[in-house]
Amino acid sequence: MKISVTVNGVDEELEITPNALLADVIRDQLYLSGTHIGCDTSQCGACTVHLNGMAVKACTVLAAQVDGQAVTTIEGIGSPADLHPMQAAFKEHHALQCGFCTPGMIMRGIDLVNNSEVLDEAAIREGLEGNICRCTGYHNIVKAMFNAALEMAPGKTTEQEVV
Amino acid sequence: MSAEQILIWGGGIMYEFKYHKASSLDEAQSLKTNTADGIYLAGGQTLIPTFKQRLAAPSDVIDLAGIEELRGISTSGSVLSIGAMTLHAEVAASTEVRDSIPALAVLAGLIGDAQVRNRGTIGGSVANSDPAADYPAAVVTLNSSVITTQRTIVGTEFFQGLFETALTEGELITRLEFTVPDRCAYAKFPNPASRYAVVGVMIAEYSGKIQVGVTGAAGCAFRALALEDALNSDASSAAIDAVHIDVENFNSDMHASAEYRAQLVRVMAKRALAAL
Ligand SMILES: Cc1cc2nc3c(=O)[nH]c(=O)nc-3n(C[C@H](O)[C@H](O)[C@H](O)COP(=O)(O)OP(=O)(O)OC[C@H]3O[C@@H](n4cnc5c(N)ncnc54)[C@H](O)[C@@H]3O)c2cc1C
Ligand code: FES
Ligand code: FES
After folding, report:
1. For ligand 3, mutation pick of A97, A138, A139 (most atoms within 8 Å of CB)
2. Complete domains list, chain A, with CATH
3. β-strands A48-51, A70-72 pairing
4. Residue A159: its pLDDT value, please?
5. Radius of gyration (Cα) for chain B, nearest Å?
6. Which ligand is nearest to the CA of B112?
């Protein structure tokens, strides 16, 4: 079957099988390998992308379901020369080790800042329920997200800094 | 699909099926009738993991996402109505829900994680009757009705067992109706990995009468009548401690034994009572 989908601002016409997962189409058909697949139980969040501006697990969406909609992947938010504030904060605060969870963390982080009412340390930790990191112990991820939020949406963050 | 395509797309891990996007309830139902083994798809947050594990092999997948009348939240008098395709995230954030039954917004916000709440729907959750799902606790407690394409089913009669409901073949949930209580609270002990309820307890009060619904403990959600009796004569923590919880139909698995679940029912009931 055919779908039209806007990926990172580019309109794509794709021939897919009805049972293809969005994550597989992104990686293997569009060659956007920044979206990772870390589990087969829909729990790790490494595959997180934005669907119409909201974080979803691309391994738990059929490509057929996104016909006519807009997908943003990690490749669509910044470039090495012009990092997104969330990417810059991850770099600044050493929020990654092996980097496998990072694309999903960053996509969720941006969604968390954009779609939350308040952002303090507790809200960020709770907001990471759907993203698993095996390396960092989360602390620097929380710190990076808090600092990115200060820049992206200063009105939403509390005075209480993550140390 | 050729072997090459399987290699390229990875889509070969699931059984093959045809995909349809229904644009009306009539179209969805006729697709269901006219396909060999069709299945409705809502948010896919239960179904797609099931496909990936090859635990389901439908001939056709009938997507309900294009049916406008299945969406939306409204209140009329003392009834809060939520369309079947309304997302968990929408219920959690809705001012209508927060103003009428705040505990229901809290419950929706405790489901899984943000990504799951951005796809999963109330209709899909209720239709699925997972023993560890959260919404069923609200359906049995909040004097609710499950409105389907065929009829209105009383909330306390909807869940019939493990993944079993009163729905008949092809019958679609169109919306859920909850009666706004005077007070209500939900307490959940989540599985630390999946966030599903090991046990969840909802307590609501209607004109001085307390109702208690339990999820996670048995094959499906149920009303805890012994707890209700105790709380209706003495609404205290001590009254909960004195209740004998019958574990005969309780689940016992690697997450928790039946006895541990019985203890969690008491503890969650106390927490819900304290938050009432
Ligand atoms: C990582 C993870 C964590 C989760 N944690 C929780 C949790 O903590 N608590 C919780 O309650 N749930 C949890 N869930 C499940 C989640 O809430 C699902 O969204 C929900 O159970 C199913 O809703 P859905 O819209 O995704 O339905 P689908 O997966 O699309 O469908 C589920 C079933 O319902 C049927 N169906 C769907 N809509 C209708 C309808 N309108 N009428 C009739 N039949 C219908 C489908 O045919 C299918 O059999 C979790 C899921 C995941 C992946
Ligand atoms: S790969 Fe999607 S949640 Fe793990
Ligand atoms: S940095 Fe290695 S999994 Fe998160």
Report:
1. A97
2. 2-76 (3.10.20.30), 85-156 (1.10.150.120)
3. antiparallel
4. 67
5. 19
6. 1
**Shortest Cα distance, chain A CAs vs residue B45, angstroms:** 6
Q: Which two tokens stand for residue B217?
A: 């403990």
Cβ-Cβ pairs closer than 8 A, A with B, add up to: 102
Mean pLDDT across A136-154 = 95
Ranking A46-60, A96-110, B8-22, B110-124 by mean pLDDT, the lowest is B8-22
Residue A160: band (very low, low, confident or very high) from pLDDT cuts 50, 70, 90: confident
Q: Could you tell me if the CB of A39 is within 6 A of ligand 2?
A: yes
Residues within 6 Å of ligand 3 by CB: A 96-101, 133-136
Answer whether B128 contacts ligand 1 (Cβ < 6 A). yes
CATH code of B183-275, in short, is 3.30.390.50
Domain B70-179 has CATH 3.30.530.20: no
Residue with tokens 């093959």: B16
Angle made by CA atoms B68, B110, B273, in degrees to the nearest 5: 120
Instruction: Enumerate the domain spans of chain B.
Output: 4-63, 70-179, 183-275
Q: ipTM of the assembly?
A: 0.96
Q: Please give the distance of CA B181 from its chain centroid, rounded to a whole number.
A: 19
pTM: 0.95
